[in-house]
Amino acid sequence: MNTLILKFQLLIFIFIILSTNSLSIFSADTAAYKYFPLKVGNVYVFTYSNYTPIPGYYTDTTFRYKILRDTLISGKKYYYLSGFPKLYLSNWSRIDSISGSLMNYYPLNTCPFYYKETFVDSLAALQGNIIMECGFIGSYESNVCTLLDTLKLFNLNTFKKVFNYSYSLGQHHLIEITKYAKHIGLYDYYSAGLGIGGIGYTKFNLKGCVINGVVYGDTSMPLIGIKNIRNNIPDNYSLSQNYPNPFNPSTNIKFGLPLSSFVTLKVYDALGRELITLINEKLASGEYDIEWNSENNPSGIYFYRFETPEFTQTKKMILIK
């Protein structure tokens, strides 16, 4: 374990050196909201990979996130970003117009710095700025803007801000590296944690997005096809048995929505481990058919789980190769 701790500390040191070796000084518009343009309808598509040391499980998939709606809470305007990278404490986020900080709505927070919110990143920060925030169990942590520099992303010449966060408690250590692009938003997120079982990590990389109606990069979802097969509105929520079943390598799943709903459809293996998110967005009422291509998965029993705020159902399917 001591060797793992030393390796992890070395990883943090190397990152800090690499992050600060480009001390660019330039005249740039640093308006905070431009580093995460929150607007209803904006879409982000990320590639995602995760490694969990116990039981040694690796996940590699693609997620699509859409800003579905906004609302006022205590006079502050929040945007709904369900499951978005790093914004994991709440579905509701905003950028403070005074401090330029990206905040999550979290009514249980007792931190004296913020009321019913948690701090994510200070998008108004300049290189070298250190922002104090509340950590776990009443401790205080620092969030550092380690780099402010130029960036070319999806053929867009822009600027980037990079933030580094680290936390340690006993044998548990965590680092987070978050990158924002001006006019785009969060485009790269990496976290690594060292615990009793070893080092695990999570990575999100933006492969495409739709910002204010403009498409950047590749917003397609691989191995997945979804289509509205009927415009008529069903009377009830429904989830059909996949067909064919058993299947190899592709199968189709049908479902019905009597109301416009936020839908998640996920596939799990026989041990209950999540393999892929097929749908994670709001859909209009109607009947839908989605294809899952399992060419990279072994034979076995799988489960698919369909969820809306009003309806949840899970069914079993069998892959035979």
Question: What are the key terms here?
Answer:
5-stranded antiparallel sheet, globular, single chain, Immunoglobulin-like, mainly beta, 321 residues, 22 strands, YmcC-like fold
Give the total of beta strands: 22
| Structural class estimated from helices and strands | mainly beta
The parts where pLDDT drops under 50 for at least 5 residues are 12-29
User: Number of helical runs?
Assistant: 1
Q: Could you please say which CATH topology of the largest domain applies here?
A: YmcC-like fold
Radius of gyration, in Å, reads 21 Å
SSE order, one letter for each helix or strand = HEEEEEEEEEEEEEEEEEEEEEE
| Cα shape | globular
Descriptive report:
Residues 12-29 have low confidence and may be disordered. This protein has one helix at 2-19; strands at residues 43-52, 57-66, 70-73, 76-80, 92-95, 101-105, 117-122, 130-134, 140-153, 156-169, 172-181, 185-195, 198-211, 214-217, 224-230, 238-239, 250-257, 261-268, 274-283, 286-293, 300-307, 312-319. It has two domains: 32-217, YmcC-like fold; 238-319, Macroglobulin (MG2) domain (Immunoglobulin-like, Sandwich). It is mostly beta strands. Strands 1, 2, 8, 9, 10, 11, 12, 13 and 14 form a nine-stranded antiparallel β-sheet that branches. Strands 3-4-5-6-7 form a five-stranded antiparallel β-sheet, with no helix packed on it. A four-stranded antiparallel β-sheet has the order 15-20-17-16, with no helix packed on it. The protein is globular, with a radius of gyration of 21 Å.
Summarize this, please?
By secondary structure, this protein is mostly beta strands. It has 1 helix and 22 strands.
